[in-house]
Amino acid sequence: MDVAAYLDAAPEARRPALARLRELCVTELKGFEERIAYGMPVYVRPGGTEAEIAWANQKQYISFYLMRTDVRDAFADRLAAHDMGKACLRFRNPAKVDFDLLHDLLHATSQPAPPPAC
Q: Which of 59, 64, 75, 110 is the most buried (most CB within 10 A)?
């Protein structure tokens, strides 16, 4: 399955939000590889092996997975207003997806990660 097929399989009511989310990922994560892993679209940095971003159409939510802890920490104030697990931002209503926040998270993720602390 590819990402286009994943979108086609999503409920019609969620497709516009999912397509917009994909467009943001492709636009902001230039050079990242888009693929299906773990049953969902993921984005891997060039030369990397692990997904830094993923999203999924789930039974109750559109889920956005943000793996970089430095980005989560930098946006903690803005993320606090949302339904957020450890690395998963959940949107129950497709009409209320915060695309401005997602854009900013994706842009921050596109930047190189800071070097590890000594």
A: 64
CATH of residue 101: 3.90.1150.200
Tokens of 40: 């969902």
| DSSP one-letter code for 13 | T
> Which residue type, as a one-letter code, is found at position 70?
D
Across the beta sheet with 40-44, the strand order is: 33-37, 40-44, 51-57, 62-66, 88-91, 83-84
Beta pairing partners, 83: 90
Domain that holds residue 40: 3-110
What's the total number of domains in the chain? 1
pTM to 2 decimal places: 0.93
Give first-to-last CA distance, the chain, whole Å: 42
